[in-house]
Every structure is written in structure tokens, then in C-alpha cells.
Predict the structure.
Amino acid sequence: MNLETWWLYVSAVLLLMSTPGPSQILILSNSLSSGFLRSTMTAAGDLTANLIQMVVATAGLTYLVQSNEELVTIIKWVGVFYLLYMGTMSLVKAKPLHIQPGRQYERRSKSSLYWQGFVVSAVNPKAVIFFAALFPQFIDSSNSVVLQFAVLSATYLILDGLFLVAYALLASRLALWLTKNNVMLRWAPGLLLIVVAIALAMRTV
């Protein structure tokens, strides 16, 4: 893969990531409720699901997703109801959040944060089709396809990871600013989880 092709791919990915989606909203929620460092586990879960989807796409299993709409629908709605439940429980158990330097965040387990990120990304099985359609546009069949796949996958994961971390950092900074201005953030994490569920329910691709 030449440098010009790679830069074209990077530009395409950046454009695709420029609009916030369910994963970005989720990491905003988790950064508000659990702090920046712990919310990075959500990013790790999201990236893990993306990597699996890339491997599945490259392995030629796109047909399974294309031909089994029932499987697509089941996976999607399991994720929607899971996030609605998490958001509702967060609202029920919500306590006033006064975010100050050195405050104690909600001590949710890292595994819980990780699996939330994984589920939000994994419940979109049509992402397999997306990767299967995107990668061939930038692959030269006369060179090593496996190596080019590795470069494209690594590039996507790094860019996506940077976007997610940036959202998490933004949320933690914003939360501190809001608190300094006497704004209560009691309901924000739960409401954001419900927004993620609605976004997933409305998404068609």
C-alpha cells in the first residue's frame, strides 16, 4: 500500500467518525459517572468488537449477516434492551454528583465498563458489511492482502481509539466545569445510556 492510498483511507475514516454515534455517547456517560481513566475500558470494549468485526469481514462471513436478517434483528434488540435497563437502573440509583478535583467516582467494575463498550459496538452486526465494503476500496490485489488488511485495521482502531479517548477526556473536563458553575449532574449518565439505546434502535446500518 502506497502512502497516497493510506492517506486517502485515513481521510475517509476521519470523515466517517466525524459524527458522534452510540459508542461516543456511551463513553461520555461512563466518563461522567466513573471518571476518565476507568472509562477507557469502555473504549477497549468497543475496539475489541470492531476488531472481531473486521476479522469476520475479512474471513468472508459477510454472507451470514446479509442472509440472516433475523439474527441481525435479535442481536440489535438485545443490545437496545440491555442499555435501556442499564440507563433506567442508573436513574433509579442516581445520586447527586458534585464533581470536584480528587472526588470519588462511582466504583463500577472495569469489566462492566468494558462489556458495555463491547455490546454497543457488537450489536451492530452490519458493521461487518461496512468493513467488507470499505477495505477492498484501498487494497491492491497485486500485493499482500493480509498485510494491507493489518495496516487498514490497525489504522482504523488507532483513529477510533483516539476519538473515544478524546470524548472521554472532554466529558471529564466538562463535568468539572459544570460543577464549578453549580450545575448538578445527577441524571446525566443514565439519560445518556438511554440516548445510546434509542440511537441503536433507530440505526439501520
